[in-house]
Amino acid sequence: MTNLLRANLLRLVKSATFWIFFSLYVIYSIALPFITHSMFSEDFVARADNLIAFGYGIIGIPIPGILIAIICNVFFGVEFHDRAVQNKIIQGYSRTKIYTANLLTACVISLAMSAVYMLFFLTISLPLYGKLPVQAKDITLLLIGGILSMISYSSIYTLIAMASKNQIVAILITLGTVIFITVIVNSFCLDVMNQQPYYTGHYDRYGEWVEEIVENPYYNKIEHDFCQFILDCFPSGQTFQLYNYNVYRWQPILYSLGLLAATTGAGITIFNKSNIK
Amino acid sequence: MEYCLTVNNLSKKYRKFLALDGLTMNVPKGAIYGFIGKNGAGKTTLIRIICGLQEPTSGSYSIYGAPNSSKEIYASRRRMGGIIESPALYGHMSARDNLRQQFLLLGKPSFDGIDDLLNMVDLKNTDKKPVRNFSLGMRQRLGIAMALASDPDFVVLDEPINGLDPQGIVEIREIILKLNRERNITFLISSHILDELAKLATHYGFIDNGKILKEITKEQLEDSLKKRIEFKVDTDAELCSALDETHLRYKLTSLTEGELYGEISISELSDILKSHGITLVKVTEKDETLESYYINLLGGEDND
Protein backbone atom coordinates (compact mmCIF):
# COMPACT_ATOMS: atom_id res chain seq x y z
CA MET A 1 0.00 0.00 0.00
CA THR A 2 2.90 2.37 0.73
CA ASN A 3 4.04 1.88 -2.86
CA LEU A 4 0.59 2.76 -4.16
CA LEU A 5 0.49 5.85 -1.99
CA ARG A 6 3.97 6.95 -3.03
CA ALA A 7 3.09 6.53 -6.70
CA ASN A 8 -0.15 8.49 -6.21
CA LEU A 9 1.62 11.33 -4.41
CA LEU A 10 4.31 11.60 -7.09
CA ARG A 11 1.58 11.79 -9.71
CA LEU A 12 -0.30 14.38 -7.63
CA VAL A 13 2.77 16.60 -7.40
CA LYS A 14 3.07 16.43 -11.19
CA SER A 15 -0.65 17.02 -11.80
CA ALA A 16 -1.45 20.35 -13.47
CA THR A 17 -5.11 20.04 -12.42
CA PHE A 18 -4.12 19.74 -8.78
CA TRP A 19 -1.90 22.80 -8.90
CA ILE A 20 -4.45 24.93 -10.78
CA PHE A 21 -7.27 24.27 -8.33
CA PHE A 22 -5.01 24.27 -5.29
CA SER A 23 -3.72 27.69 -6.39
CA LEU A 24 -7.29 28.95 -6.65
CA TYR A 25 -7.78 27.97 -3.02
CA VAL A 26 -4.54 29.69 -2.05
CA ILE A 27 -5.79 32.87 -3.74
CA TYR A 28 -9.13 32.50 -1.92
CA SER A 29 -7.30 31.98 1.40
CA ILE A 30 -5.18 35.10 0.92
CA ALA A 31 -7.90 37.36 -0.47
CA LEU A 32 -10.71 36.42 1.92
CA PRO A 33 -9.47 38.20 5.09
CA PHE A 34 -8.89 41.42 3.15
CA ILE A 35 -12.26 41.26 1.39
CA THR A 36 -14.23 40.56 4.57
CA HIS A 37 -12.26 43.25 6.45
CA SER A 38 -13.07 45.81 3.78
CA MET A 39 -16.78 44.92 4.09
CA PHE A 40 -16.90 45.79 7.79
CA SER A 41 -20.01 47.78 8.55
CA GLU A 42 -22.54 48.15 11.35
CA ASP A 43 -24.48 45.20 10.00
CA PHE A 44 -21.57 42.96 9.22
CA VAL A 45 -18.65 42.56 11.52
CA ALA A 46 -16.66 39.41 10.94
CA ARG A 47 -14.84 37.79 13.83
CA ALA A 48 -11.60 35.86 13.71
CA ASP A 49 -13.39 32.56 14.31
CA ASN A 50 -15.70 33.35 11.36
CA LEU A 51 -12.58 33.53 9.25
CA ILE A 52 -11.64 29.98 10.26
CA ALA A 53 -15.14 28.82 9.28
CA PHE A 54 -14.99 30.71 5.97
CA GLY A 55 -12.17 28.35 5.02
CA TYR A 56 -14.87 25.71 4.50
CA GLY A 57 -17.18 27.89 2.44
CA ILE A 58 -18.88 31.24 2.18
CA ILE A 59 -22.33 32.60 1.23
CA GLY A 60 -23.67 29.08 0.89
CA ILE A 61 -20.94 27.86 -1.47
CA PRO A 62 -18.66 25.09 -0.18
CA ILE A 63 -15.57 26.45 -1.98
CA PRO A 64 -13.06 23.76 -0.91
CA GLY A 65 -15.71 21.07 -1.41
CA ILE A 66 -16.10 22.05 -5.06
CA LEU A 67 -12.34 22.30 -5.61
CA ILE A 68 -11.68 18.92 -3.98
CA ALA A 69 -14.47 17.45 -6.13
CA ILE A 70 -12.80 18.58 -9.34
CA ILE A 71 -9.28 17.55 -8.26
CA CYS A 72 -10.35 14.10 -7.03
CA ASN A 73 -12.53 13.28 -10.01
CA VAL A 74 -9.95 14.37 -12.56
CA PHE A 75 -7.11 12.69 -10.64
CA PHE A 76 -8.87 9.35 -10.17
CA GLY A 77 -10.74 9.56 -13.49
CA VAL A 78 -7.39 9.60 -15.30
CA GLU A 79 -6.59 6.24 -13.70
CA PHE A 80 -9.55 4.67 -15.43
CA HIS A 81 -9.17 6.63 -18.67
CA ASP A 82 -5.48 5.76 -19.01
CA ARG A 83 -6.01 2.21 -17.67
CA ALA A 84 -3.66 2.74 -14.75
CA VAL A 85 -6.08 0.91 -12.45
CA GLN A 86 -5.73 -2.16 -14.69
CA ASN A 87 -1.99 -1.90 -14.35
CA LYS A 88 -2.17 -1.75 -10.55
CA ILE A 89 -4.37 -4.85 -10.44
CA ILE A 90 -2.09 -6.74 -12.84
CA GLN A 91 0.85 -5.78 -10.61
CA GLY A 92 -0.81 -7.81 -7.87
CA TYR A 93 -2.45 -5.15 -5.72
CA SER A 94 -5.82 -6.02 -4.22
CA ARG A 95 -8.67 -3.70 -5.05
CA THR A 96 -9.13 -2.89 -1.37
CA LYS A 97 -5.55 -1.60 -1.21
CA ILE A 98 -5.97 0.41 -4.42
CA TYR A 99 -9.18 2.00 -3.12
CA THR A 100 -7.68 2.74 0.29
CA ALA A 101 -4.56 4.31 -1.24
CA ASN A 102 -6.77 6.53 -3.41
CA LEU A 103 -8.88 7.52 -0.40
CA LEU A 104 -5.75 8.42 1.55
CA THR A 105 -4.52 10.48 -1.40
CA ALA A 106 -7.83 12.35 -1.47
CA CYS A 107 -7.48 12.94 2.29
CA VAL A 108 -3.98 14.31 1.72
CA ILE A 109 -5.48 16.80 -0.76
CA SER A 110 -8.10 17.87 1.81
CA LEU A 111 -5.57 18.15 4.61
CA ALA A 112 -3.17 20.12 2.41
CA MET A 113 -5.96 22.58 1.63
CA SER A 114 -6.91 22.85 5.30
CA ALA A 115 -3.25 23.36 6.24
CA VAL A 116 -2.66 26.06 3.66
CA TYR A 117 -5.81 27.89 4.78
CA MET A 118 -4.72 27.77 8.41
CA LEU A 119 -1.29 29.02 7.44
CA PHE A 120 -2.82 32.13 5.89
CA PHE A 121 -5.29 32.45 8.76
CA LEU A 122 -2.44 32.58 11.25
CA THR A 123 -0.28 34.90 9.18
CA ILE A 124 -2.94 37.25 7.73
CA SER A 125 -6.38 36.91 9.34
CA LEU A 126 -5.35 36.70 12.98
CA PRO A 127 -3.12 39.81 12.91
CA LEU A 128 -5.87 41.64 10.98
CA TYR A 129 -8.78 40.65 13.23
CA GLY A 130 -7.11 40.36 16.59
CA LYS A 131 -7.59 37.58 19.08
CA LEU A 132 -10.19 34.86 18.85
CA PRO A 133 -13.38 35.80 20.73
CA VAL A 134 -14.37 32.23 21.55
CA GLN A 135 -13.08 29.59 23.93
CA ALA A 136 -10.40 27.07 23.05
CA LYS A 137 -13.01 24.27 23.25
CA ASP A 138 -15.09 25.90 20.52
CA ILE A 139 -12.05 26.49 18.35
CA THR A 140 -11.07 22.84 18.75
CA LEU A 141 -14.58 21.73 17.77
CA LEU A 142 -14.52 24.11 14.80
CA LEU A 143 -11.16 22.83 13.57
CA ILE A 144 -11.88 19.14 14.09
CA GLY A 145 -15.35 19.51 12.58
CA GLY A 146 -13.99 21.45 9.63
CA ILE A 147 -11.15 19.06 8.88
CA LEU A 148 -13.42 16.03 9.22
CA SER A 149 -15.95 17.58 6.89
CA MET A 150 -13.13 18.04 4.34
CA ILE A 151 -12.20 14.37 4.81
CA SER A 152 -15.87 13.47 4.32
CA TYR A 153 -15.77 15.31 1.00
CA SER A 154 -12.72 13.25 0.06
CA SER A 155 -14.42 9.98 0.96
CA ILE A 156 -17.57 10.86 -1.00
CA TYR A 157 -15.63 11.95 -4.11
CA THR A 158 -13.38 8.88 -3.94
CA LEU A 159 -16.50 6.71 -3.85
CA ILE A 160 -18.06 8.53 -6.82
CA ALA A 161 -14.84 8.47 -8.88
CA MET A 162 -14.06 4.81 -8.21
CA ALA A 163 -17.64 3.66 -8.71
CA SER A 164 -18.38 5.64 -11.88
CA LYS A 165 -14.98 4.81 -13.49
CA ASN A 166 -15.43 7.78 -15.82
CA GLN A 167 -14.01 11.26 -15.36
CA ILE A 168 -16.79 13.23 -17.00
CA VAL A 169 -19.61 11.22 -15.42
CA ALA A 170 -17.95 11.51 -12.00
CA ILE A 171 -17.55 15.29 -12.30
CA LEU A 172 -21.16 15.72 -13.45
CA ILE A 173 -22.49 13.53 -10.62
CA THR A 174 -20.35 15.31 -8.06
CA LEU A 175 -21.09 18.86 -9.12
CA GLY A 176 -24.77 17.99 -9.55
CA THR A 177 -24.83 16.57 -6.04
CA VAL A 178 -22.98 19.55 -4.57
CA ILE A 179 -25.32 22.02 -6.25
CA PHE A 180 -28.40 20.01 -5.29
CA ILE A 181 -27.37 19.67 -1.66
CA THR A 182 -26.06 23.20 -1.36
CA VAL A 183 -28.75 25.11 -3.13
CA ILE A 184 -31.85 23.04 -2.58
CA VAL A 185 -31.36 20.90 0.51
CA ASN A 186 -29.37 23.39 2.56
CA SER A 187 -31.63 26.31 1.62
CA PHE A 188 -34.71 24.28 2.45
CA CYS A 189 -33.17 23.07 5.68
CA LEU A 190 -32.13 26.57 6.63
CA ASP A 191 -35.72 27.77 6.21
CA VAL A 192 -36.99 24.97 8.43
CA MET A 193 -34.21 25.46 10.96
CA ASN A 194 -35.02 29.16 11.25
CA GLN A 195 -38.45 28.25 12.56
CA GLN A 196 -38.33 28.25 16.36
CA PRO A 197 -40.92 26.48 18.55
CA TYR A 198 -41.88 29.75 20.20
CA TYR A 199 -41.66 33.36 19.25
CA THR A 200 -42.26 36.62 21.08
CA GLY A 201 -45.50 38.20 20.04
CA HIS A 202 -46.29 41.90 20.46
CA TYR A 203 -49.91 42.85 21.05
CA ASP A 204 -51.80 46.02 21.48
CA ARG A 205 -53.97 45.07 24.46
CA TYR A 206 -56.37 47.84 25.47
CA GLY A 207 -53.99 50.49 24.19
CA GLU A 208 -50.94 48.91 25.80
CA TRP A 209 -48.15 47.01 23.98
CA VAL A 210 -47.69 43.59 25.49
CA GLU A 211 -44.95 41.05 24.83
CA GLU A 212 -45.98 37.41 24.97
CA ILE A 213 -44.24 34.09 24.24
CA VAL A 214 -46.37 32.40 21.62
CA GLU A 215 -46.23 28.89 20.13
CA ASN A 216 -45.10 28.95 16.50
CA PRO A 217 -47.77 27.22 14.35
CA TYR A 218 -45.27 26.66 11.54
CA TYR A 219 -42.80 24.81 13.72
CA ASN A 220 -42.72 21.03 13.19
CA LYS A 221 -40.32 19.15 15.46
CA ILE A 222 -39.97 16.09 13.20
CA GLU A 223 -39.24 18.32 10.21
CA HIS A 224 -36.83 20.37 12.32
CA ASP A 225 -34.95 17.29 13.57
CA PHE A 226 -34.82 15.79 10.08
CA CYS A 227 -33.30 18.95 8.65
CA GLN A 228 -30.82 19.11 11.51
CA PHE A 229 -29.85 15.52 10.70
CA ILE A 230 -29.38 16.36 7.00
CA LEU A 231 -27.24 19.37 7.83
CA ASP A 232 -25.18 17.40 10.36
CA CYS A 233 -24.76 14.36 8.16
CA PHE A 234 -23.29 15.73 4.94
CA PRO A 235 -20.14 17.82 4.73
CA SER A 236 -21.83 20.62 2.81
CA GLY A 237 -24.37 20.93 5.62
CA GLN A 238 -21.67 20.73 8.28
CA THR A 239 -19.59 23.48 6.71
CA PHE A 240 -22.79 25.44 6.03
CA GLN A 241 -23.48 25.44 9.77
CA LEU A 242 -19.90 26.33 10.59
CA TYR A 243 -19.89 29.56 8.61
CA ASN A 244 -23.53 30.48 9.22
CA TYR A 245 -24.26 29.83 12.88
CA ASN A 246 -21.06 30.40 14.83
CA VAL A 247 -22.23 27.46 16.94
CA TYR A 248 -19.74 24.67 17.16
CA ARG A 249 -21.24 21.30 17.98
CA TRP A 250 -19.76 17.83 18.38
CA GLN A 251 -22.55 15.90 16.61
CA PRO A 252 -21.30 16.65 13.05
CA ILE A 253 -17.93 15.16 14.03
CA LEU A 254 -19.60 11.82 14.75
CA TYR A 255 -21.60 12.04 11.54
CA SER A 256 -18.40 12.73 9.58
CA LEU A 257 -16.74 9.65 11.02
CA GLY A 258 -19.87 7.61 10.27
CA LEU A 259 -19.99 8.95 6.73
CA LEU A 260 -16.30 8.16 6.22
CA ALA A 261 -16.87 4.57 7.36
CA ALA A 262 -20.04 4.16 5.29
CA THR A 263 -18.65 5.59 2.04
CA THR A 264 -15.39 3.66 2.39
CA GLY A 265 -17.22 0.39 3.07
CA ALA A 266 -19.60 0.96 0.16
CA GLY A 267 -16.79 2.10 -2.15
CA ILE A 268 -14.59 -0.91 -1.46
CA THR A 269 -17.53 -3.29 -1.89
CA ILE A 270 -18.58 -1.72 -5.20
CA PHE A 271 -15.01 -1.54 -6.52
CA ASN A 272 -14.31 -5.15 -5.52
CA LYS A 273 -17.40 -6.36 -7.38
CA SER A 274 -17.03 -4.26 -10.51
CA ASN A 275 -15.81 -5.59 -13.84
CA ILE A 276 -12.94 -3.54 -15.21
CA LYS A 277 -12.38 -3.46 -18.94
CA MET B 1 5.33 -30.36 -18.20
CA GLU B 2 5.24 -27.34 -15.90
CA TYR B 3 2.58 -24.73 -16.51
CA CYS B 4 2.57 -21.10 -15.50
CA LEU B 5 -1.15 -20.79 -16.22
CA THR B 6 -3.78 -23.48 -15.92
CA VAL B 7 -7.43 -22.72 -16.57
CA ASN B 8 -10.03 -25.23 -15.54
CA ASN B 9 -13.62 -25.22 -16.78
CA LEU B 10 -13.85 -21.43 -16.59
CA SER B 11 -17.10 -19.65 -17.40
CA LYS B 12 -18.01 -15.99 -17.50
CA LYS B 13 -21.51 -14.72 -18.02
CA TYR B 14 -22.49 -11.10 -18.66
CA ARG B 15 -26.20 -11.03 -17.92
CA LYS B 16 -27.52 -13.37 -20.63
CA PHE B 17 -24.33 -13.52 -22.72
CA LEU B 18 -22.01 -16.44 -22.04
CA ALA B 19 -18.55 -15.10 -22.93
CA LEU B 20 -16.59 -18.11 -21.64
CA ASP B 21 -18.17 -21.53 -21.61
CA GLY B 22 -16.22 -24.03 -19.52
CA LEU B 23 -12.86 -23.06 -20.99
CA THR B 24 -9.87 -25.24 -20.14
CA MET B 25 -6.31 -24.44 -21.22
CA ASN B 26 -2.70 -24.72 -20.09
CA VAL B 27 0.19 -22.39 -20.85
CA PRO B 28 3.55 -24.17 -20.41
CA LYS B 29 6.49 -22.36 -18.82
CA GLY B 30 8.81 -20.79 -21.37
CA ALA B 31 6.24 -20.93 -24.16
CA ILE B 32 5.02 -18.25 -26.51
CA TYR B 33 1.39 -19.21 -26.45
CA GLY B 34 -0.60 -17.95 -29.41
CA PHE B 35 -4.19 -17.48 -28.38
CA ILE B 36 -6.24 -17.46 -31.55
CA GLY B 37 -9.88 -16.68 -32.04
CA LYS B 38 -12.19 -14.40 -33.94
CA ASN B 39 -13.56 -11.18 -32.44
CA GLY B 40 -15.94 -11.95 -29.60
CA ALA B 41 -14.61 -15.50 -29.17
CA GLY B 42 -13.66 -14.76 -25.55
CA LYS B 43 -9.92 -14.03 -25.78
CA THR B 44 -9.97 -10.68 -24.02
CA THR B 45 -12.49 -11.89 -21.43
CA LEU B 46 -10.15 -14.71 -20.43
CA ILE B 47 -7.18 -12.34 -20.29
CA ARG B 48 -9.12 -9.86 -18.16
CA ILE B 49 -10.03 -12.65 -15.76
CA ILE B 50 -6.52 -14.03 -15.35
CA CYS B 51 -5.21 -10.49 -14.85
CA GLY B 52 -7.72 -10.00 -12.01
CA LEU B 53 -9.81 -7.34 -13.71
CA GLN B 54 -12.91 -9.50 -13.66
CA GLU B 55 -14.11 -12.46 -11.63
CA PRO B 56 -15.17 -15.70 -13.31
CA THR B 57 -18.78 -16.80 -12.93
CA SER B 58 -17.61 -20.37 -12.34
CA GLY B 59 -14.52 -22.52 -12.75
CA SER B 60 -11.01 -21.73 -11.63
CA TYR B 61 -7.53 -20.85 -12.79
CA SER B 62 -4.12 -20.82 -11.22
CA ILE B 63 -0.99 -18.82 -11.94
CA TYR B 64 2.26 -20.49 -10.96
CA GLY B 65 0.23 -22.94 -8.92
CA ALA B 66 -1.65 -20.28 -6.94
CA PRO B 67 -5.42 -20.76 -7.29
CA ASN B 68 -7.50 -17.68 -8.09
CA SER B 69 -9.48 -18.10 -4.87
CA SER B 70 -6.36 -17.92 -2.68
CA LYS B 71 -4.50 -14.86 -1.42
CA GLU B 72 -1.32 -16.21 -3.03
CA ILE B 73 -2.74 -15.16 -6.39
CA TYR B 74 -1.66 -11.55 -5.63
CA ALA B 75 1.94 -12.70 -5.18
CA SER B 76 1.74 -14.75 -8.40
CA ARG B 77 0.45 -11.71 -10.29
CA ARG B 78 3.58 -9.84 -9.23
CA ARG B 79 5.41 -12.26 -11.53
CA MET B 80 3.18 -11.12 -14.39
CA GLY B 81 3.16 -8.21 -16.75
CA GLY B 82 0.51 -7.41 -19.25
CA ILE B 83 -1.06 -5.19 -21.85
CA ILE B 84 -4.76 -5.58 -22.38
CA GLU B 85 -6.08 -3.99 -25.59
CA SER B 86 -3.96 -0.86 -25.17
CA PRO B 87 -1.06 -0.09 -22.81
CA ALA B 88 -1.81 1.42 -19.40
CA LEU B 89 0.04 4.71 -19.70
CA TYR B 90 -0.53 8.18 -18.31
CA GLY B 91 -0.95 10.28 -21.45
CA HIS B 92 0.21 13.54 -19.87
CA MET B 93 3.47 12.05 -18.61
CA SER B 94 6.69 11.29 -20.48
CA ALA B 95 7.92 7.74 -21.08
CA ARG B 96 10.43 8.16 -18.25
CA ASP B 97 7.81 9.46 -15.80
CA ASN B 98 5.50 6.57 -16.66
CA LEU B 99 8.31 4.16 -15.87
CA ARG B 100 9.02 6.03 -12.63
CA GLN B 101 5.38 5.49 -11.67
CA GLN B 102 5.77 1.81 -12.44
CA PHE B 103 8.98 1.54 -10.40
CA LEU B 104 7.27 3.21 -7.44
CA LEU B 105 4.31 0.83 -7.74
CA LEU B 106 6.70 -2.09 -7.76
CA GLY B 107 8.45 -0.74 -4.69
CA LYS B 108 11.84 -0.59 -6.37
CA PRO B 109 14.39 1.20 -4.19
CA SER B 110 15.70 3.38 -7.03
CA PHE B 111 14.99 4.36 -10.60
CA ASP B 112 18.06 2.50 -11.88
CA GLY B 113 17.10 0.37 -14.82
CA ILE B 114 14.78 2.87 -16.47
CA ASP B 115 17.44 3.77 -19.04
CA ASP B 116 17.99 0.10 -19.86
CA LEU B 117 14.29 -0.42 -20.42
CA LEU B 118 14.00 2.70 -22.57
CA ASN B 119 17.02 1.54 -24.56
CA MET B 120 15.57 -1.90 -25.06
CA VAL B 121 12.38 -0.53 -26.58
CA ASP B 122 14.24 2.26 -28.40
CA LEU B 123 12.54 5.15 -26.62
CA LYS B 124 15.51 6.74 -24.94
CA ASN B 125 15.37 9.92 -26.97
CA THR B 126 11.76 10.85 -26.31
CA ASP B 127 12.79 13.25 -23.50
CA LYS B 128 9.78 15.04 -22.02
CA LYS B 129 7.43 14.32 -24.89
CA PRO B 130 4.07 13.36 -23.39
CA VAL B 131 2.95 9.84 -24.16
CA ARG B 132 -0.31 11.09 -25.70
CA ASN B 133 1.82 12.41 -28.58
CA PHE B 134 3.48 9.03 -29.18
CA SER B 135 2.69 6.92 -32.22
CA LEU B 136 0.80 3.67 -31.64
CA GLY B 137 4.02 1.66 -32.08
CA MET B 138 5.87 3.81 -29.54
CA ARG B 139 3.03 3.37 -27.06
CA GLN B 140 3.07 -0.38 -27.54
CA ARG B 141 6.83 -0.48 -27.04
CA LEU B 142 6.54 1.63 -23.90
CA GLY B 143 3.72 -0.65 -22.73
CA ILE B 144 6.06 -3.61 -23.09
CA ALA B 145 8.78 -1.75 -21.16
CA MET B 146 6.23 -1.06 -18.39
CA ALA B 147 5.24 -4.72 -18.34
CA LEU B 148 8.91 -5.72 -18.10
CA ALA B 149 9.73 -3.31 -15.28
CA SER B 150 8.89 -5.98 -12.72
CA ASP B 151 11.20 -8.54 -14.40
CA PRO B 152 8.17 -10.76 -14.99
CA ASP B 153 8.23 -14.46 -15.74
CA PHE B 154 4.92 -14.33 -17.56
CA VAL B 155 3.68 -11.59 -19.89
CA VAL B 156 0.17 -11.36 -21.29
CA LEU B 157 -0.29 -9.35 -24.47
CA ASP B 158 -3.74 -8.79 -25.90
CA GLU B 159 -3.61 -7.91 -29.59
CA PRO B 160 -0.13 -6.36 -29.30
CA ILE B 161 0.27 -5.65 -33.02
CA ASN B 162 -3.20 -4.31 -33.77
CA GLY B 163 -2.91 -1.10 -35.77
CA LEU B 164 0.89 -1.19 -36.02
CA ASP B 165 2.71 -0.45 -39.25
CA PRO B 166 4.97 -3.20 -40.72
CA GLN B 167 8.06 -1.72 -39.07
CA GLY B 168 6.29 -1.62 -35.70
CA ILE B 169 5.17 -5.22 -36.08
CA VAL B 170 8.74 -6.36 -36.77
CA GLU B 171 10.04 -4.42 -33.74
CA ILE B 172 7.48 -5.91 -31.37
CA ARG B 173 8.14 -9.40 -32.74
CA GLU B 174 11.88 -9.05 -32.23
CA ILE B 175 11.45 -7.81 -28.66
CA ILE B 176 9.17 -10.74 -27.80
CA LEU B 177 11.49 -13.33 -29.35
CA LYS B 178 14.52 -11.82 -27.64
CA LEU B 179 12.86 -11.82 -24.22
CA ASN B 180 11.61 -15.36 -24.65
CA ARG B 181 15.02 -16.67 -25.70
CA GLU B 182 17.25 -14.64 -23.40
CA ARG B 183 15.13 -14.38 -20.27
CA ASN B 184 12.87 -17.39 -20.79
CA ILE B 185 9.80 -15.21 -20.30
CA THR B 186 6.52 -16.98 -21.02
CA PHE B 187 4.18 -15.06 -23.30
CA LEU B 188 0.45 -15.42 -23.79
CA ILE B 189 -0.37 -13.47 -26.94
CA SER B 190 -3.88 -13.11 -28.25
CA SER B 191 -4.24 -12.11 -31.86
CA HIS B 192 -6.20 -12.66 -34.98
CA ILE B 193 -3.28 -11.70 -37.22
CA LEU B 194 -2.38 -15.32 -37.78
CA ASP B 195 0.59 -14.93 -40.13
CA GLU B 196 2.38 -12.82 -37.55
CA LEU B 197 1.53 -15.14 -34.69
CA ALA B 198 2.87 -18.07 -36.74
CA LYS B 199 6.30 -16.38 -36.68
CA LEU B 200 6.33 -16.27 -32.89
CA ALA B 201 4.31 -18.93 -31.20
CA THR B 202 5.61 -22.20 -29.80
CA HIS B 203 2.17 -23.29 -28.64
CA TYR B 204 -1.32 -22.53 -29.90
CA GLY B 205 -4.75 -22.43 -28.35
CA PHE B 206 -7.75 -21.98 -30.62
CA ILE B 207 -10.84 -20.48 -29.01
CA ASP B 208 -14.35 -20.10 -30.33
CA ASN B 209 -17.63 -19.29 -28.57
CA GLY B 210 -15.85 -19.23 -25.23
CA LYS B 211 -14.38 -22.72 -25.55
CA ILE B 212 -10.93 -23.99 -26.46
CA LEU B 213 -11.28 -25.96 -29.68
CA LYS B 214 -7.75 -27.26 -29.69
CA GLU B 215 -4.35 -26.80 -28.03
CA ILE B 216 -1.32 -27.87 -30.01
CA THR B 217 2.41 -27.28 -30.11
CA LYS B 218 4.22 -25.58 -32.95
CA GLU B 219 5.61 -28.96 -34.08
CA GLN B 220 2.19 -30.54 -34.12
CA LEU B 221 0.83 -27.60 -36.06
CA GLU B 222 3.70 -27.74 -38.54
CA ASP B 223 3.01 -31.42 -39.06
CA SER B 224 -0.53 -30.48 -39.90
CA LEU B 225 0.44 -27.54 -42.08
CA LYS B 226 3.39 -28.99 -43.95
CA LYS B 227 2.89 -30.31 -47.41
CA ARG B 228 1.38 -33.61 -46.54
CA ILE B 229 0.69 -36.68 -48.58
CA GLU B 230 -2.07 -38.95 -47.43
CA PHE B 231 -1.72 -42.42 -48.90
CA LYS B 232 -3.29 -45.85 -48.94
CA VAL B 233 -1.41 -48.99 -50.01
CA ASP B 234 -2.44 -52.56 -50.68
CA THR B 235 -0.30 -54.24 -47.99
CA ASP B 236 1.51 -53.40 -44.76
CA ALA B 237 4.45 -55.73 -45.46
CA GLU B 238 7.72 -53.77 -45.58
CA LEU B 239 5.72 -50.50 -45.50
CA CYS B 240 7.82 -48.97 -42.72
CA SER B 241 11.09 -49.90 -44.47
CA ALA B 242 9.84 -48.29 -47.66
CA LEU B 243 8.73 -45.13 -45.85
CA ASP B 244 12.08 -44.90 -44.01
CA GLU B 245 13.73 -44.84 -47.41
CA THR B 246 11.96 -41.52 -48.22
CA HIS B 247 13.85 -39.83 -45.28
CA LEU B 248 10.64 -37.97 -44.42
CA ARG B 249 8.59 -37.97 -41.22
CA TYR B 250 5.50 -40.14 -41.47
CA LYS B 251 2.60 -41.33 -39.43
CA LEU B 252 0.54 -44.47 -39.96
CA THR B 253 -3.14 -44.00 -39.34
CA SER B 254 -3.95 -47.68 -39.99
CA LEU B 255 -2.06 -50.74 -41.18
CA THR B 256 -2.26 -49.67 -44.81
CA GLU B 257 -2.87 -45.93 -44.52
CA GLY B 258 -0.70 -43.04 -43.42
CA GLU B 259 0.65 -39.55 -43.91
CA LEU B 260 4.03 -38.38 -45.16
CA TYR B 261 5.23 -34.87 -44.21
CA GLY B 262 7.44 -33.01 -46.67
CA GLU B 263 8.26 -32.69 -50.33
CA ILE B 264 8.27 -35.84 -52.48
CA SER B 265 6.82 -36.41 -55.90
CA ILE B 266 4.12 -39.03 -56.18
CA SER B 267 6.08 -40.92 -58.88
CA GLU B 268 9.16 -41.07 -56.62
CA LEU B 269 7.03 -42.36 -53.72
CA SER B 270 5.39 -44.86 -55.99
CA ASP B 271 8.81 -46.14 -57.21
CA ILE B 272 10.11 -46.58 -53.65
CA LEU B 273 6.99 -48.46 -52.61
CA LYS B 274 7.10 -50.61 -55.75
CA SER B 275 10.71 -51.57 -54.99
CA HIS B 276 9.33 -53.12 -51.74
CA GLY B 277 6.47 -54.84 -53.54
CA ILE B 278 3.83 -52.33 -52.38
CA THR B 279 1.27 -50.68 -54.65
CA LEU B 280 -0.21 -47.24 -54.06
CA VAL B 281 -3.99 -47.52 -53.95
CA LYS B 282 -4.85 -43.91 -53.20
CA VAL B 283 -2.84 -40.72 -52.76
CA THR B 284 -3.80 -37.11 -51.91
CA GLU B 285 -1.55 -34.05 -51.61
CA LYS B 286 -2.45 -31.54 -48.87
CA ASP B 287 -1.06 -28.04 -48.29
CA GLU B 288 -2.34 -25.78 -45.47
CA THR B 289 -1.58 -22.47 -43.78
CA LEU B 290 -2.31 -21.56 -40.18
CA GLU B 291 -5.23 -19.56 -41.48
CA SER B 292 -6.73 -22.45 -43.41
CA TYR B 293 -6.05 -24.74 -40.46
CA TYR B 294 -7.94 -22.33 -38.22
CA ILE B 295 -10.80 -21.98 -40.66
CA ASN B 296 -11.02 -25.75 -41.03
CA LEU B 297 -11.00 -26.09 -37.26
CA LEU B 298 -13.87 -23.62 -36.94
CA GLY B 299 -15.69 -25.28 -39.81
CA GLY B 300 -15.22 -28.66 -38.24
CA GLU B 301 -16.66 -27.42 -34.96
CA ASP B 302 -19.54 -25.74 -36.72
CA ASN B 303 -20.32 -28.99 -38.50
CA ASP B 304 -20.25 -31.01 -35.29
What does this protein structure show overall?
The complex is a heterodimer of chains A (277) and B (304). Chain A is mainly alpha-helical and 277 residues long. Chain A has one domain. Helix content of chain A is 75%, strand content 6%. Chain A is globular and about 85 Å long. Chain B is of the alpha/beta class and 304 residues long. Chain B has two domains: 3-216, P-loop containing nucleotide triphosphate hydrolases (Rossmann fold, 3-Layer(aba) Sandwich); 228-286, Alpha-Beta Plaits (2-Layer Sandwich), CATH 3.30.70. Chain B is built from eleven helices and 14 strands. Chain B has helices at 43-50, 72-77, 95-105, 114-120, 136-148, 166-183, 194-198, 218-225, 239-245, 266-275, 290-303, and strands at 3-14, 17-28, 32-36, 58-63, 66-67, 80-83, 154-158, 186-191, 203-208, 211-217, 228-233, 249-252, 257-261, 280-286. A six-stranded mixed β-sheet of chain B has the order 6-7-8-3-9-10, sandwiched between helices. In chain B, strand 9 (203-208) and strand 10 form a beta hairpin. In chain B, helix 5 (136-148) runs parallel beside helix 6. The A-B interface holds A 2-4, 6-7, 10-11, 14, 16, 78, 82-84, 86-94, 273, 275-277 and B 14, 48, 51-55, 74-78, 80-82, 84-93, 97, 100-102, 104-107, 146, 150, 156.
Please write out the topology:
The complex is a heterodimer of chains A (277) and B (304).
Chain A: H1 2-13, H2 16-38, H3 48-54, H4 63-81, H5 84-90, H6 95-129, H7 136-164, H8 167-194, E1 198-205, E2 208-215, H9 221-233, H10 235-245, H11 251-273
Antiparallel strand pairs in A: 1-2
Chain B: E1 3-14, E2 17-28, E3 32-36, H1 43-50, E4 58-63, E5 66-67, H2 72-77, E6 80-83, H3 95-105, H4 114-120, H5 136-148, E7 154-158, H6 166-183, E8 186-191, H7 194-198, E9 203-208, E10 211-217, H8 218-225, E11 228-233, H9 239-245, E12 249-252, E13 257-261, H10 266-275, E14 280-286, H11 290-303
